[in-house]
Task: structure prediction
Amino acid sequence: MKRNKSTVALFLAMLLSSCQGGKVEHPLEDYRSELSFQEETFKIMQLTDIHWSYVTILEQSKAYMDAILKNALSEEGHIDLVVITGDIVLNANPYILKSLIDYLDGWNLPLAFTYGNHEKEGTWSTAYLNSLITSAKNSITRIVDGDNVYGETNYLIDIKDGSNLLWQIYCLDSNSLAHDNGLTYQYDNIHQDQVDWLKRMAKDSEVGGTNVPSLGFIHIPPKEMFAAQEEALKDPSKHIMGESHEKCCATKLDSEFFDAAKNINMQGIFFGHDHSNDNVVSYQDVLLGYGVKSTPELYYYEDQEGFDWIGYSLIELKKDHRWSLKHVYLDYDDPSNVKHSSTWESSL
Result:
């Protein structure tokens, strides 16, 4: 008996999908958002490890974060994108989670979230979390349900000047915990299917056969951060800014992510996770760096004078493909007490 070829093809596609747990490859456009230069520069504020929880005094935390935003707008004139690199909550409930998303949404600035290793520990489902994140009116976070890319927050933001693509921002889910020798757990990393997705997105985005410069935002530092910090100790010229006040808690699992990122012209990879670290180092011509912890929740670094080293990171992108980075710290008890790192600037 002859069979219709299209029917057979459909059956095989459905069979393959069922074998993969119903996950399918989605069009790359499903993962893409777009923003534009509104001024001569495009400015990104990175927040990380907000960690609202049952014990957070929400109004106090909001007041401090109001001071962060006020300071950034006062110093920079404009903020074009806020990237929140994970652990926005810790052992919270839906009310606390929604309160934070609503509060950040009230800034009326584009919001891009990456998940950390604590987002899924509250009393909610992943579907509820994803819905809150993607339905906020100012959120440009893309979460593609049922796709074949591991994790949740894997997406791309094109930064254009008119119709010209000048920069790209890759957000990836560094996930939570992974088995170590099948018995214990340790911090997870970016999986191979995410790396494959990254390569596909970069290939699809080439301009004249060349990758435009990009930055990456994740939560858990990649394994290369261990080697990068050791190299910076031996060669101080590799140290860009910031300090390390706790042991690096990067993943110990191997991943092709860093090599893939370097090969697609990703010039910096920024993360959070270690609250008392904000050091940035240059490794194989890529900046690897912690953002600045953005609230005092859970733990943070306080110096001998009592100053709280918390606040935000500021990245400025330029149309000629140069870019710069600095860290800004606001004391929690007196946010008018502000300190700055030196400003690092790239060269052409």
